[in-house]
Amino acid sequence: MEGHCCAIYLSGTGNTEFCVSKLTKLLDVNAPIVAMEDVGAISAVEASENIIIGYPVQYSDAPKMVRDFILQNAAIWKGKKVFCLATMGAFSGDGAGCAARLLKKFGAFVLGGLHIKMPDSVCDSKLLKKNRAEKMEIIRCAEAKIEHAAMDIMNGKFPHDGLGFFSHFIGLFGQRLWFYGKTRHYSDKLKINKERCVGCGLCARLCPMKNLTVENKIAVPHEKCTMCYRCISRCPQKAITLVGKEIVEQYRLEDFI
Ligand SMILES: Cc1cc2nc3c(=O)[nH]c(=O)nc-3n(C[C@H](O)[C@H](O)[C@H](O)COP(=O)(O)O)c2cc1C
Ligand code: SF4
Ligand code: SF4
Fold first, then answer.
1. Same structural domain, 93 and 199
2. 219 lines ligand 3 (CB under 6 A)
């Protein structure tokens, strides 16, 4: 990529941060890598010609926070060259395309897209659960795919995962259409087990949406959850759930690398 580069990402349990960081460092060691919730995210985009934008796929869609970040800062994308990286547990169809189409609408030029399969982050569902060795293998394959993509990009060949018409079709009809209501708005469905919560405040400090407060020594969720699963994967008391009723297995990438 010619010109200044930066990377911005949303990552709940570490997968996207890891993949975006790896790709960015291979392409440009000096490029800033900034979390989307950080104050520096907008200025990093403004100062760069090339932007890698990464996020976890949710129900074959980009998280609401990512879509809002793009929409609320519509003016910063004009003339930028963007590369979309979407991580997922199994399938998205057009995960990278979801942000790419929005960015294009605001004047960005889409360089390409990359889909990376990573261990699933949904701590309170039994679906897609894998043992430790299987997770390590998924991460190894992800690293290999990123290294391969970086080589191709350096040779001027950008991958186009999730950007074509067929990907759009299977993303939409394979999943997004049936779960559209899940990602259309922020969620107000976060549940705190009051018997377990000890009011440590870790969840409130970590949430990228500032969606939790601690009141009378108990965490209180509000209605702006972007379903990233960061608080759920971190709570030392396993007191937080969203999709399911009980923690099946907390997932944090750092336990596997
Ligand atoms: C609410 C929610 C919905 C998800 N939906 C999908 C999905 O539709 N397809 C898929 O393959 N993975 C899905 N996943 C899995 C994540 O996309 C995947 O684990 C991702 O790598 C997590 O990235 P992170 O650690 O950066 O948050 C979903 C995860 C969450 C929390
Ligand atoms: S991290 Fe868990 S224990 Fe700590 S305040 Fe939040 S819900 Fe309660
Ligand atoms: S409340 Fe938890 S799951 Fe929801 S956005 Fe905040 S950290 Fe993520």
1. no
2. no
